[in-house]
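Work Package 3 (structural annotation) set out to generate three-dimensional models for the target panel prioritized at the project kickoff. During this period the team completed the workflow that converts sequence records into discrete structure tokens, so that structures can be stored uniformly alongside our sequence database. As a representative example, we reproduce one entry of 132 residues exactly as it appears in the project archive.
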Amino acid sequence: MPNNYRIAKVSSLLKKEITLILQNDLENDLLRSNFISISKIEVTGDLQFCKIYISSAAEGNIRKEIIENLNLAKNYIKHILGQRIEMRRVPELTFKDDTALAKGLSVLKLLEELNNKTHNQNSQVEENNDNV
């Protein structure tokens, strides 16, 4: 049975170290020119696999390219992690696009459009009432 405390501790450590690696050790213009952050890390109970969810304000194609670049660099990142943290085995890394931010922004945009539409309809009704 997996030790949830250990998984949480390893997840926290991985998030901290991977963030530092992304900021300081990767020399990738695409990553440096776009703000990216780790929104969530999921580590399996046996600590063999780790999914890293990346959020970014970049547009769709650029987001995909960022994730592709990170997945291409995952062995290098894993190597650096192995040097920095004491674990028998560093988990296999997989970078995923966290679309929660983009979905949230699209919901806010829809709500704003709905609010504007309602406001415009109310203005027209008031204008019609004034003309009567």
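The longest strand covers residues 36-43.
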